[in-house]
User: What shape does this take?
Amino acid sequence: MIFDGKLISPFSGGESGNFRNKYEDSSPGPFEGPDDNVDYSTLSEDVREYFRYFTNPTTADLSIINVALFGDAELKSSNSSLGIYGDLDANKNIYMDIKVPGQSQFMDCARQYAGGAGQTEGREGDGCRRGTLSSTIDGTGASNQLDFDAASVKGTASGGGPDPIIVRIRAHKNWTGYISQIQVTWSS
Assistant: This one.
């Protein structure tokens, strides 16, 4: 959830996720506010997902962009030997995936781009990172170059453009980190 300008676990906001009015009879919360405010203190799904879209503001069609994350977290690949969601728990680990709607599926931003015959369709879970992984997310940012392969993000000069990209961040409900900013640089 976004709380106090940061992407955090719902358990990290309010009183362990409880935002209910302190005057309500059933499960009173810690706040003075509207009745029936949310209570995230019990969540059934272990892995939480956050989606954000960005639109290419340039005139150019781009297949390579840079994405920087700021905050306090650790970027991991969802394609690990630990299996799906294996790296996510009560820690600072997150997964970040990115897609061009209609042109690719969600691609793993921490996984190395295979290129060429190893990756031509931007399939679910394919790697899209070029270069060395910048995994430690802190106040100075962790910036990674991402390659959409055959899928390009149309700019304002293209017919039907500009295109959006969708960023998906996944973390465990007990995640202890936060993201304060996502910065997209629209040049390769």
Notes: The two ends are 31 Å apart (CA to CA). The chain has two domains: 1-44, 46-185.
